[in-house]
């Protein structure tokens, strides 16, 4: 598998939950002088969304070139239309990603912001209040939604800027020649590599250049793991390659722990439960996080390799949607993220084999049925790519 192109000399700061993320995002927007690019799956109309919206409009009013992309499905048709109108009045350029599925099934699930081509924020947080449920804004959460992002300064920002600007151009009216040139420019940028300290790589998943880049990054990390791997994700329904990589690592003595969010979607939970017996049989530890909504898409391997981003471990993120992660090779950063993950494990519930075996037969039958339904739908959606 192709190696990641790491860039050295970066400062990568971990942001935990909305309190840290939105404070950093709004402060950086308020300091912007030239341009802002923001891309998100959900741009809500709740109090947090309105604060970010106001900051973007303040920037536009002082002459900053502000471009915003929000997914049409994630934000909703009504909210997308409202944003189109309010941003136009506020001087913010706004585009909806793939309204009414005109360009296929893919959604932009990426959460990226680049400011003045100097600062980038990448992670799992949408533009919505982390004290309100993703499913219904009228349902409050007892604790903040558990999620992470990174704030990056340094050479890696150039790659992130190029990618998000290319996304903006792709959503406009580009001729075939211009689209090909854009693709070549992106490939040229990807040749940059380094062995300096504070290494980081920006990886995306799309349906053209990088159909399996994020999954490959995980497979490489698990394949090279020697001691310990902790992976946290809300939606666990990967294909066979990913599951085999987890089992292979655990089988050769790596301490593998999956921290999985549960309680949001019953079908998703059932699909995840269908994998439990085989994973546990080979030594993979499974911890269910029930304290609040787990929305984090993060991992640490051997306290040397870490990733933070938007990609779930399900068929949509790994095979259909557009995603973005940052991979970091820095011991101090990995240790900080590990500390958070260990706290998440302590707040979760460790699943034992007997817990599954003692479930009524009809529940176990439902888990298997849910998996078959999910696999069938994903195979259709991915044209056979999901297995």
From TrEMBL:
GO terms for biological process: cardiolipin biosynthetic process. Coiled coil: none annotated. SMART domains: PLDc. Its EC number is 2.7.8.-. It comes from the Bacteria. It is found in: Cell membrane. CDD domains: PLDc_CLS_1 (cd09110), PLDc_ybhO_like_2 (cd09159). The active site is at 109, 111, 116, 295, 297, 302. One of its GO terms (molecular function) is cardiolipin synthase activity. Keywords: Cell membrane, Lipid biosynthesis, Lipid metabolism, Membrane, Phospholipid biosynthesis, Phospholipid metabolism, Transferase. Its main location: membrane. It holds the Pfam family PLDc_2. It is a peripheral membrane protein. One of its GO terms (cellular component) is plasma membrane. Residues 104-131, 290-317 form the PLD phosphodiesterase domain. It catalyses: 2 a 1,2-diacyl-sn-glycero-3-phospho-(1'-sn-glycerol) = a cardiolipin + glycerol. Catalyzes the phosphatidyl group transfer from one phosphatidylglycerol molecule to another to form cardiolipin (CL) (diphosphatidylglycerol) and glycerol. HAMAP family: Cardiolipin_synth_ClsB (MF_01917). Belongs to the phospholipase D family. Cardiolipin synthase subfamily. ClsB sub-subfamily. NCBIfam families: PRK11263.1. This is Cardiolipin synthase B.
């Amino acid at each position: 598998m192709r190696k990641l192109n790491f860039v050295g000399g970066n400062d990568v700061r971990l942001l935990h939950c909305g309190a840290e993320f939105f404070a950093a995002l709004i402060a950086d927007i308020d300091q912007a002088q030239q341009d802002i690019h923001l891309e998100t799956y959900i741009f809500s109309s709740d109090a947090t969304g309105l604060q970010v919206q106001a900051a973007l409009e303040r920037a536009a009013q002082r002459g900053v070139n502000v471009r915003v992309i929000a997914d049409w499905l994630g934000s909703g048709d009504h909210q997308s239309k409202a944003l189109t109108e309010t941003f136009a009045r506020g001087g913010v350029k706004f585009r909806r990603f793939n309204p009414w599925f005109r360009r296929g099934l893919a959604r932009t699930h990426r959460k990226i912001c680049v400011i003045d081509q100097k600062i980038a924020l990448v992670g799992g947080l949408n533009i919505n209040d982390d004290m309100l449920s993703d499913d219904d804004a009228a349902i409050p959460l007892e604790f903040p939604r558990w999620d992470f992002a990174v704030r990056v300064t340094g050479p890696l920002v150039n790659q992130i800027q190029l990618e998000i600007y290319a996304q903006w151009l792709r959503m406009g009216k580009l001729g075939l020649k211009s689209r090909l040139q854009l693709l070549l420019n992106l490939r040229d940028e990807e040749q940059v590599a380094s062995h300096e300290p504070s290494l980081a790589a920006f990886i995306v998943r799309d349906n053209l250049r990088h159909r399996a880049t994020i999954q490959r990054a995980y497979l490489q990390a698990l394949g090279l793991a020697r001691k310990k791997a902790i992976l946290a994700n809300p939606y666990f329904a990967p294909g066979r390659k990913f599951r085999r990589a987890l089992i292979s690592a655990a089988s050769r003595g790596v301490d593998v722990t999956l921290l999985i969010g549960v309680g949001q979607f019953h079908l998703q939970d059932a699909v995840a439960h269908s994998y439990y017996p085989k994973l546990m049989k080979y030594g993979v530890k499974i911890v269910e996080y029930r304290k609040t909504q787990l929305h984090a898409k993060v991992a640490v391997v051997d306290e040397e390799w870490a990733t933070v981003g938007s990609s779930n471990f399900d068929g949509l993120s790994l095979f259909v949607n557009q995603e973005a992660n940052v991979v970091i090779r820095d011991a101090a950063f990995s240790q900080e993220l590990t500390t958070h993950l260990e706290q998440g494990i302590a707040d979760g519930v460790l699943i034992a084999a007997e817990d599954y075996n003692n479930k009524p037969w009809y529940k176990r039958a439902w888990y298997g049925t849910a998996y078959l339904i999910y696999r069938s739908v994903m195979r259709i959606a991915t044209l056979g790519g999901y297995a």
